[in-house]
Amino acid sequence: MNAFSFSCLLLGTAVAAWGQALPKKPAETEAGKRWTDLNADRIAGDANGQPITLSDIRRQVEPFVEEIRRGKSDAEFAKAIESYGTETLKQIADRQLVIAEFKTSTGKVPTSYIDGDIEETIRRDFGGDRNRFVASLRSQGLTPLSYRKLIEDRIIFEYMVGQIRRTALEVGPGKLQAYYDAHKGEFTRKESVNLRQITLIQGASETPAEGKARAEAWAAALRDPAQIPATMARFKVTGRKTSTAPGFAEVAEAISTDDFAKQGGDTGWKPLEDINERVVGVVRKLRDGEVSEALQFDIPGSPTLWFILKREGFKAAGTDTLDDPKTRALVEERVRAQAIKDAVEKWLAELRAKHYVEYR
């Protein structure tokens, strides 16, 4: 069996010291000196005969250092960065094992795959300028050859993990029901409503009375869709061309001034407790599919607003069941994600056992 070992004592002291040495301010000379002293590269471990260096770990940890440091004392930060570094070492080692497995069982990545990935990066991130790309690599301590190796390894890892994930995509009804039964409390719902809305604002050249008349005209037309074309012509509104007569969604897209306009006014499902009390009172009186009158809201110092609402659906407080398509889709997503996670972890455990994993 191939030897696989971690120099954990070395990692524990080196990463902790490195974390403590990260300068909080570039101007702090002493901290900068410790940073330089402790950033000298060294072997932190090896996986299947492949060395893993502190620079390999630093490259992955550095983007998250400030996030890890936030709100922590020096001692807490040192402990957190050590834990993060140790976990990163294990992840790098797992990648090395996966790559080794590919090379012994599958073969070689076609050169064209690697070339295509690199060319796409140059085109997307460097405007096609290869010199800028090479300069960027140099600033990261990489050469074109070492970068090519990184890309090859990434392609191999993603391919191998993808193969395992595909085996876990199928989830039977029994698993869905078992998950739902064990987590039923997560699918309780509060009294909620699905609304579409149109928001109108008093125009700069309108009086409040004129704005109100315009809002009421739109509300009347939306309650009697046959009037919509004439109302659009009256207010010189051009809607999106559709094969059917325009309805609430098309009018909302054309005239509403809020963030839901592009969605045809669809605000999605919301608990009633999160909605304005006056709106709740109106919504309760509507049937599904009915449109409200124009609701006027006067805000001191701002133009008058009018809301026109359409109730799309209403749910009493209760528990969603697997018969609900959205609930079933959510359960499927969670079960599939757990199945994929379990399959990948089992596979990695088998690889570690196969290649002999030892923690010192």
Key phrases:
single chain; Chitinase A, domain 3; 360 residues; alpha+beta; four-stranded antiparallel sheet
Please list the strands of the largest sheet in the order they lie side by side.
3-2-1-10
Which geometry do the CA atoms define? elongated
Q: DSSP helix count?
A: 14
Q: Give the helices and strands as they follow along the chain.
A: EHHEEHHHHHHHEEHHHEHEEEHE
Point out poorly predicted stretches: 1-14, 24-38
Q: Any idea what the radius of gyration is?
A: 30 Å
Quickly give the structural class: alpha+beta
Structure explained in plain terms:
The protein has 360 residues and is an alpha+beta fold. It has 2 domains: 5-168 and 342-359, Triger factor/SurA peptide-binding fold (Orthogonal Bundle), CATH 1.10.4030; 191-316, Chitinase A, domain 3 (Roll). Helices cover 56% and strands 13% of the residues. The protein has 14 helices and 10 strands. The chain has a 4-stranded mixed β-sheet with strand order 3-2-1-10. Strand 7 (295-297) and strand 8 (305-315) form a beta hairpin. It is elongated, with a radius of gyration of 30 Å. The protein starts with a strand and ends with a strand.
